[in-house]
Design brief:
The protein is mainly beta. The protein is built from six helices and 40 strands. β19 (387-412) and β20 form a beta hairpin. The longest helix has 17 residues, at 2-18.
Length: 740
Amino acid sequence: MNRTLVVLSFFNFLFSTAFSQNTIKGKVLDTVEITATAGQNRSLLYQPASIATLKTTELKRGQGIFLDDAINGNVPGVSMQRRSVSGGQQFNIRGYGNGTRGARGISSNFDGQGYKVYLNGIPVTDAEGITLLDDIDYGSIGNVEIIKGPAGTLYGQAIAGVVNLKMVQPEKGKTAVQQDVMVGNYGLQRYTTRVQTATDHSALLVSYAKQRSDGFSMHNRSNKDFVNVLTEFELNQKQRLSTYFSYTNSYDERLGELTLDQYAAKDYSGNIEYIKRNGHSHVSSFRGGMEHTYNFNESIYNTTAVFGSGYRSDASSAGGWTDKTAVNYGFRSSFGTKFLLNDAISLSGITGIEMQGQVAQTVGYNMKQNPADTTTTPWVLGKPYWVVNASTSNMFTVTGTSTLFTEWTLALPHQFSLTAGVGVSRQRVSLDDRFNPETAAKPSHYDTSYKQMVSPHVAINKVFNEELSVYAAYSRGYKAPASAYFFITTPVVTAPATPASGRINSSLKPEVGDQFEIGTKGALYKGRLAYQLSLFHTKFSNKMTTVAVQLNSTTTAYSYVVNGGDQVHNGMETSLKWFVVKDGHGLFTSVAPFANLTWSDFNYGNNFIFQTGTTTGNITTTDYSKKSVAGVPKITTNAGIDVTTKPGLYASMMYSYRSDVFITSDGANKSSSYNLLNGKIGFHRNIMRRFELDASFGVNNITKVQYPLMIFVNQLPDAYLPAPLNTVVFGGLELRYNFN
């Protein structure tokens, strides 16, 4: 923390000297471009919620191709982790985590749950509420907006929040071709080709990117191909039409998690059980969507989007091999309305529906030694990988989710506004076990629905002199159980002799998140100082967790999911950016220090107690009550500076601090705090009128600090997915030719 205080003191000095600079043209906060909102004024100043926005400056401050560096460095209260070079990504919004999976506790380490992600208006989150992020071209993202906290009113089952992603857009009036190249150590290579053209009434962008890395350890390679096509048309004064299509082929090797001892010894050889099974994640996917907006008049408009996506994946790990094929489809339609009630009062709203369905089949296999490997010695790197063996499961699922929503904002005199809305969501799950024959003791079909998940939102906002605002808000969100939670299979037991059986886990209830938040935002001193500050109290009820049933003192017979109890999250988030120089006419055209801070006091509630076991002799009581939520640092802070100059040179530097983190929910294991220092310099220049050149060089983890890309919560002996131990060096070159 001493380093943090030094850095913040330095910025305090910069802020104090800035008052002597020449005044600059005033500006308001960023506007909300993607996120659904009921208000007419889309400036963040008028949004009674905590919404983070990332534009080109933040997205390209680091490597700009993985997104986690932009999220972790610029969005207080939100973290992004990954399991490999560019796979297994997850968001954690205000400590919610990822639901549950497996047999080891409260949080899942394998998929994203609880939040919703959209890409150009198309849900990345499937109809079951699970988000797979391996196949996103983060290097082509141009805008990110994140709603922090329950957002069920306008987005359905978004108990933790919403992440809206938007691809880079064609520049109006420009026709250009661009080639980008990035290379770095650990074999990093990325090549991106873009062709764009845009007029006042139409736009087209086509891009292809190839990205690869050898990884920083054994069995850690990554290969990805991305294709993106987007169009926009202004059909007439009343109608607009946009489309987006993408294809991705993504392959990431997994070295497996390190144990506590491996991490302490800086032994990055991975988990041999992963490596011998060729641990990996392979995803081939497509997405497509079309959005149409019709303005009936100055008071009413409709926006309707239809979308579809599909993917085929195969993944292997220490547990075996899994194939999955899934198709998602749906639509979202909303009416925007705005009425001027008198000269000082107006009413605006958004009312609509979103529906999404999914058909999926998941087949699991065990694995065996490759027949070409005739040795009897333990497997070592260099021997043939194990191969797929017999099928162990085959699950066919049909899921559907729908949300009806309406939200209204009443704008009052003196820049007061009241916002109120409600969303009603429903989830349907149909499961068919295609592997286990149905018997009287073992069902193979289950169908259930979760209805009337009602999510209200109420807020009040007050703006002062169009410079700062204060707000108070209440919101709710839900998360229904995933399909993997319902079948409980009891294996064959030899002593005493008991045949295999099964039952339906029909008592599960959706999790509920309720959040109270107060905050303030502003763009002060004629636009020099942009800031946000929020305080929140969130309670997650019916939090799902996995419990294990012990056969005896050393063997787990089976596991299943239960609604455990409550989690109570109290937190504070603040961010600021100070334009010491902006639109300057001297050597420096922009000098902008920035900083953010997150304080998290997240705990399990008073009633987080459950029992496991089958007989009196082996019943175990687990009590997490009042313990700290695992996987979230109490203190997170970032500070840095961006500088641009008239000749075209630019530079940025960022310092990050993360306090220690509990690895297990019982509080018995904790990771160490760490500090990171990253920097980047570059040169941007127009050449011969039609050419644009951008060359950059960056260094991450300058001081070679050991830190994790991801912590595996409640998964001991597996504990860490490590980041590269050495400094990461990269360089980029962008060359663009403008035809006009």
